[in-house]
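Blinded run. Sample ID left blank on purpose so nobody reads anything into the name before looking at the predicted structure. Input follows.
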Amino acid sequence: MKMTTFAAIDIGAYEIVMKIFEISAKNGMKEIDCIRQRTELGADTYAFGYISYDKIESLCRILTEFRTIMEGYRVDVYRACGKSALRETSNILLILEQIKSKTGLHVDILSNSEHRFIKYKSIAFQETEFLKMIEKPTAIADVGEGSLQISLFNKECLVTTQNIRMGTMRLREKLSGMEEKTSDLSGMAEELMSSELFNFRKLFLKDKEIKNLIVLGSFLPKIIKKANNGEPSFYLSKDALMAELESYRRKDPESIAEELEISPDVSELLNQSIAVYRSLIGGMDVEEIWAPSLSLCEGLAYEYAEQNHYLKNPHNFENDILAAGKNIAKRYMCNTKHAEVVENFAMILFDGLKGVHDMGKRERLLLRLAAQLHSCGKYISMSYSAECTYNIIASTEIIGLSHTEREIVANVAKYNTMEFPDYKELAANLQSADYLTVAKLTAILRIANEMDKGHRQKFKSVKTVLKKDVLTVTINSAQNMTLEIGMMDDKRKFFENVFGVKLLIKQKIKQ
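Blinded prediction complete.
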């Protein structure tokens, strides 16, 4: 029986955590060790915008110790990831270079959407509890050190996600120096957090009825467990949890740390955490709250297990990404029927070019998103819709996509109607391989979009045959398609130049 020893390293804002797991198809995933080391990288990043020499040295020393521990466990595979404290620092390239030279470890810097998506995957692996919760409209709140991520589920599908740049540590930094001016620092933190949440509720909750709330946070599982008299249950009603949180407001952080069996050196973040929990939960009329004790480390291990076929996740994450895309399109009043036709046609072309385009499932997903969103900029400007489309997509977080993938989708949608640029114009944001992906997906989207030029969905079906460097596309339609086929010359030339394949379009008239 094959078993893999996997190490997950989470480089956070106030501590670095390594968890070691044994993973096998027969026994699933088992945590065998957890090591935590305190170093406040976020204190530098959130206050000054860069990480000091002393903290970089501390980070490298801790990672060197972690590497020694991994060798002792004979770890087969590891993944080390940095989040906002590293992502937002101005000297990140120098830090990564020092980590590599001093520890020999490679660190991935996760975009916010990648970070949240991996943690969200770890929740979905709790199959029974997760599926039960999302039977009703549900919100997932991921309380981090740098920000708060809120994702909304409806009909078992992810419909929207928003990031609020006010996490526990950033909140602490904003209120630093206020201790001498107030005796109710927790109240001030809650007031500041509530003001940030007001706009989210106004814009995205409106009349939405949220029944369940899933909260990921460092301290909440311990608070709920204590409220349940130590029982290993992480569920509580809203009223019971709010009462429990209120009781902590009257206690000093050291006393709370002792009650919850939390290390005293992180107790100073308790006030900010409780303020976030109270502001979040108090503003939602939910029936039940679930706070599973999960972190990024579990998410990294689950993702590795899924990708290597040790475990199978019951939830379809690709559908969540596509559902999020459709909801963005709906928000910007895109023509739904036209977008569906373009998306379907684009998929037929993509699949028909298999073996030529050298792209896989992930690029296919990005093409689907570009097709869904290719006209969203018209909501802002009919004259400059391509630029507006780019700006909307590039600025809108789509959970599960990296920053580069979002940049690819935004450029494909933009150059669907604009002249395609030389690489030097996009080199600042895209590597050469990504540029080629943009070119290929744009060529496909242009043809698909042109085939519904009049937005009348004239054809019933489409068939493709690739033979001797000729892609023949046969369209089954009883309607006149002179407009669509006749105006395709420029798009056809670009398509043929990109793929080195001649494009032949035929109409089959069949009633």
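Unblinding after everyone has recorded impressions. The longest helix spans residues 53-73.
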